[in-house]
Amino acid sequence: MLKKQTLDGNVETFLLVILNQGPSYGYAIVQDLNEKAQGLLNMGEGTVYPVLHRMEEKKLIASTWRQSDSGRKRKYYRVTPKGRKMLESKEQQWQTLSKTMELFLGPVETNHKPQNA
Amino acid sequence: MSDKLNKYLDRVMVYANCAEEKATGIRHELEDHLCIKIEELQKAGLQYEEAVSKAIEDHGHPRTVGYALRPHNAWIDIRTHGTARGFIAIGPKAVGIFAFGGQAYGVFTLGAISIGLFSWGGLALALLFSWGGVVASLLGVAYGGCALAPVASGGVAAGIISTGGAAYGFFVPSGGQIHSVYTLETLPTFIEWMWSFCKSYIPDFSHNINYNTGNWILLLSFFTFMVPMSFLQNKETKRLQEQDPYFAE
Is residue A42 part of a domain? Predict the structure, then answer.
């Protein structure tokens, strides 16, 4: 079973991946996040906003207010060059880590069992 | 917008406790999210009130959301639940330069369990100085009911130099039941140097700061720390009690 902290610690990366596809707003981001996480990420929807705000403070993403079709004000987020750079770095780290883990544990698809089990 | 939704957002903002301009933006953003969610749920067949309840439930407890919206590592962070982080941190778990709470971690810490550079508390573990019930210091001085440190003083004390009701150490200048490896005449140079330092500056050992004066200094430092921290904690608890009708839940 995957530890909750393992996923929580990577929420910023997940959000960068989503926002790298194009500007988006809170509700749509949460929907994309839940869809991609397939139920593995068990966060209250409201707790995504603090992460977005923190990322904005770190200048990984930027935001603009626009008027929505319903007439409500809506905040759109987009990735900044700094955010894109971080995402690239995370992708590289992940590729190195996953390759190394595969060498020891085998490919993800196989049900690898320890030899001495 | 429904009254229930308004009250939920009010509660979130009470816990977020941010500046008005920022609060307005956050509130608009959360309101937009919840309104879209309610519309989606209504499309899925739920009645309006049911949709509101479900949207709020999925959004998270107002305290959790509100606290999460607070800036990380603020100057002062006071919480009634969870972990407070800041220059001054007060909460059930507190992490900060000045930390006060059930569990306190930081530089100057005061708590039931207190871990820091300088710690006061029931169980106080410090790098340099600790004072309280069961206390230990890695490199400095520990005063307490049960004290373990290079320089230890207490009911039961153990260290390189120690004093107390029952004192154990390489050198025990005074105490009730004592076990001392060296006497004043046989002290190795390093311990002799430590002893001369203790004699000059540390209460219980010093001629200038005797046992009673030392205890007064320690008590004063404890209350100087505790009184303003308790005041800030009570003030925040009162604010939340006044502004959140479901504070106790």
Answer: yes
